[in-house]
Amino acid sequence: MDEAKGALAQARAILDAASRALARRVDGGGRVSTGKLDGVQPEAFELARRLSEQVAAEALLDWGTAHGPHEAAIAAHYAATSCAALAAWRWREADGLLAGAPGFDGAARRFVSEALAVDAVATLGRSVLERDNEPAGTLGLDGEHKAVATHFARFADERIAPLAEEIHRHDRLIPEALLQEMAELGVFGISIPEDYGGSFVDHLTLIIATEELSRASLGAGGSVITRPEIAAKAILAGGTEAQKRRWLPALARGEKIVSVAVTEPNAGSDVAALKASARKVEGGYLINGEKTWCTFAGRADLFVLLARTGSVEEGHRGLTLFLVEKPGRPAGEGDEYAFEHVQAGG
After folding, report:
1. Where are the domains of the chain?
2. pLDDT of amino acid 119
3. H or E stretch at 321
4. Which of 34, 88, 311, 330 is the most buried (most CB within 10 A)?
5. Pairing of strands 277-281, 258-261
6. Under a CB-based contact definition with an 8 Å cutoff, are residues 303 and 323 in contact?
């Protein structure tokens, strides 16, 4: 593990140098210049990815050190993979953000080479396959959280997995019967406090449930938790008490299915650049614009929609999150669903 820690320390120094180089390139008088950042998007994306892998590798190394040799081997393998990806970026971008950054020394290169050698990877693979319990290593869960994992894993295997291929291959909506079973399981209320009809315990429980459902299907499993979670967190943080009482119990019971409408054709990762506008009119707001990649949009009863109420120059400070109802899905219909919304002037 010492070799892995040494290699990651060197990787951190390389990434710190790249971060400083990017900061200089996008500086707009003490603030990030959106125009300059647009000009180095590929480099900025690569740096963000490498930084994410670095943080994950460091956390995984702590986990491996705290547990047994199996966990340590998994952590060391990921650390080597992360360092190798960074070294490859350095080789590709010799004149870019990494120009002048330090490199890996001989010990770090040997560690990466040995950890990613075919024999080393094969040995780790056999170790994973031979373990009857927790093949990917212990998560260190207590009895209550292990019970949560078992409960949701069983539901994922028995109820979601048999339907996942049909849903994905043929772009189906999640069957109503499955949504009802999820509601009875408590899926929709797991991020909502008991005071508002939910069953929130802690964020670890939420993460475990999401991960176990995602084993069977991200689209038909894990994402079913994350949509109402996003809505609930927003309502809890910024909603009025009346809004909390109106929406949170309905979300927790699965009576209102949520879709998040943030991404636009020309504004995804740079949310501050979105163009959809919301203008105050008599009786409410008039929203104009386009949204895309809205998970569950066809089935949802409620959109959590981000729109611009201020000027473009205000960036993220000119944005407001709206709760937007859309026509409900008539009871008794099949899984296919469509709706037409007509609003004068909108």
Report:
1. 2-130, 143-249, 260-325
2. 95
3. strand 319-325
4. 34
5. unpaired
6. yes
Q: Which residue is associated with the tokens 């210049």? A: 33
Query: How is residue 94 annotated by DSSP?
Result: T
Sign of CA dihedral 226, 231, 236, 242: negative
Task: Spell out the alpha helix ranges (H) of 203-326.
Answer: 203-216, 223-238, 241-252
Query: Radius of gyration (Cα) for the chain, nearest Å?
Result: 24
Strands 277-281 and 284-288: antiparallel
Q: How far apart are CA 242 and CA 170, in angstroms?
A: 40
Whole-angstrom Cα distance, residue 183 to residue 177? Answer: 10
Q: CATH homologous superfamily for 143-249?
A: Acyl-CoA dehydrogenase/oxidase, N-terminal domain (1.10.540.10)
Q: Is the pLDDT of residue 337 over 50?
A: no
Distances (CA, A) of 294 to 22, 194, 249, 260, 343: 32, 28, 23, 6, 20
CB 256 within 8 A of CB 301: yes
Q: Topology of 260-325 in CATH?
A: Butyryl-CoA Dehydrogenase, subunit A; domain 2 (2.40.110)
Q: What angle do CA 251, 253, 255 make, to 5 degrees?
A: 65
How many Cβ atoms from other residues are within 10 Å of residue 292's Cβ? 13
pTM score, whole prediction: 0.73
Q: Which of 200, 205, 226 is nearest to 214 (CA)?
A: 226
* Apex 252 CA angle, 248 and 253, nearest 5: 120
Is residue 305 within 8 Å of 321, Cβ to Cβ?
A: yes
- Segment 17-27 shows an average pLDDT of 92
pLDDT digits (tens, 9 = 90+) for 172-225: 888 889 999 999 988 999 999 999 999 988 999 999 999 999 989 998 898 888
Is-contact 225 190, C-beta < 8 A? yes
Q: What is the pLDDT of residues 41-92, one digit of tens each?
A: 889 999 999 999 999 999 999 999 999 899 999 999 999 999 999 999 988 8
Distance CA 284, CA 306 (A): 15
CATH 1.20.140 applies to domain 2-130: yes
